[in-house]
Write a structure and sequence with these properties.
four-stranded antiparallel beta sheet; 348 residues; mainly beta
Length: 348
């Protein structure tokens, strides 16, 4: 099943809000087709992740503090006849503005609050329900005008570390994770980006030695070397033509299951760019750029088999579906309309 998060309220003139909450679709991998199954109401569930073992969906509710900012958990049930329903597993209100990203770190959920620059750690119970907030970290910033903007985290289990993209401070920040789930920042390990690049999302390579980061405000993808104590930039590649780099609005970045291909989306030009990783040389090679099948692709994701890539085109309420060939190239198969304000995909 495909889980789709979306905006239920208009965020700005380019980001409509017509979703009803968290939606579930059937996905037919033989033909790359989606079919609506049901939804549960939620206020701006803009980012979703899933615990496939427990059939639990977690949603970041992207609102201001006191107006619904939080994280919700829902168990998704499906009968033999195909009927789908949600069981509410609770909601945790957050002391921060604009939670926009979630990730797992063992028995905790990490929440990035973009608006207020907070990183929250929430306990996750055995049944998948949410426990208490065990830590809230107020990020610092060297840029006093913009301040910190937490945008994405990734947990590296072998290193027991969390990497955080701070779009406001233009840094990839590093935190050590203790056994109780609490985090301690290691400022001396932070990786700096050029001013106003806006590192947005990070994805870890399957081998644990590399990661990729996209920049929101300039059309760059960065290959990060994690083989040493401190993250280092191994390579950088443009995902847009040089003449329009400054007009970029980078959104999501994903890696293929085997770690050989990078896919990243841009909202300004409504495109998906495919890049290849040369792991031996630690370099990125540009492959091709494709129309996203709609307008303003906020997220993209690969199907569990890796045979399909989907784009969440927020502005025109569509989902683009692409066939992925064995070499990583994309072929547009379908664009499904009337998927209200999609912003994120996850799989159950």
């Amino acid at each position: 099943m495909l889980i789709i998060g979306g905006y239920t309220e208009r965020m700005d003139e380019d980001t409509p809000g017509k979703a009803r909450g968290i939606s579930v679709y059937d996905f037919f991998p033989s033909e790359g087709r989606i079919q609506f199954l049901g939804f549960t109401p939620a206020k701006n569930p803009s980012y979703v992740i899933t615990d496939r073992k427990r059939s639990v969906v977690y949603a970041a509710l992207e609102n201001d503090q006191g107006e619904g900012a939080g994280v919700s958990a829902h168990k998704v049930n499906r009968s033999k006849q195909g009927k789908v329903w949600f069981d509410d597993l609770g909601k945790v209100d957050l002391p921060g503005d604009g939670p926009c990203h979630l990730s797992f770190a063992k028995n905790t959920v990490l929440v990035s609050s973009y608006g207020s620059g907070h990183l929250h750690v929430i306990r996750r119970e055995e049944d998948g329900s949410l426990g208490e907030i065990i830590q809230t970290i107020a990020l610092s910033s060297e840029d006093t005008d913009r301040g910190p903007h937490a945008h994405c985290t990734a947990y590296h289990e072998a290193r027991e570390q969390v990497f955080l993209c701070d779009k406001g401070d233009d840094k990839l920040k590093v935190f050590d994770r203790a056994e109780d789930g609490t985090l301690t920042e290691r400022p001396e390990l932070a990786l700096d980006f050029q001013e106003h690049q806006g590192p947005r999302h990070i994805t870890l390579h399957p081998d644990g030695q590399l990661a990729v980061v996209n920049a929101e405000l300039i059309g760059h993808v960065h290959l990060i070397d994690l083989s040493g104590e401190k993250p280092l930039r191994a390579n950088r590649m443009n995902y847009l033509p040089e003449r329009v780099l400054d007009e970029a609005s980078g959104a999501a970045i994903r890696l293929s299951t085997n770690g050989k291909m990078i896919y990243t989306s841009d909202r300004t030009y409504s495109v998906v760019t495919a890049l290849r990783i040369d792991e031996k040389a630690k370099k990125i090679v540009l492959r091709d750029t494709y129309p996203s099948g709609g307008e303003s692709p906020r997220d993209l994701n690969l199907s569990p088999s890796g045979e399909w890539l989907l784009t969440a085109n927020t502005a025109d309420h569509t989902v683009g579906v692409f066939r992925v060939d064995p070499r990583g190239a994309l072929t547009h198969y379908h664009t499904f309309k009337k998927v209200p304000s999609p912003t994120c995909f996850a799989w159950l």
